[in-house]
Amino acid sequence: GYPVGPADEEYVLVNNKCQCVTVTSKFVPSKENPDEEVLERNIRILVPLKARENISDPLSPLRTTFVYRLSELCKNCDPVEIELGGAIHQAQQGNSCGEPQTCYTYDRNVCYSSPVPILHHGEVKHVTAALTPASCFAE
């Protein structure tokens, strides 16, 4: 994890912008024994209102079911290099990394687009429109 702030004892373990979940942890005095510290974990979930089943399709039905699995949120799929038997190998700390993640909202770092019908001179044309313009176009 990384510190929430420079003078903060709280650490961010998960910051999943796709599913709007943040998991933090910090050591706090124990209720049973104030001389002892215990690890406290906080899970913050923002449920986006009016989220669509298919976020790239503004006409898809509203999403009514949200599923959060801590094991999937905490998996680390970034490849790391490790040395085994004198050779360097690429390894991942997470399993099922090939499966696509279900997004409940737009990840602002990803470009999302959707075809939009436009009536031009009596003819309907489908034009690709950016749903997250800041991520789709360079400054």
UniProtKB/TrEMBL annotation:
Transmembrane stretches, start-end: none
Classification via InterPro entries: Ig_J
GO cellular component: pentameric IgM immunoglobulin complex
Gene Ontology terms describing biological process: humoral immune response
Source organism superkingdom: Eukaryota
Molecular-function GO terms, alphabetical: immunoglobulin receptor binding
Pfam families: Ig_J_chain
Stored PANTHER family: IMMUNOGLOBULIN J CHAIN (PTHR10070:SF2)
The protein, known as: IGJ protein
UniProt organism field: Certhia brachydactyla
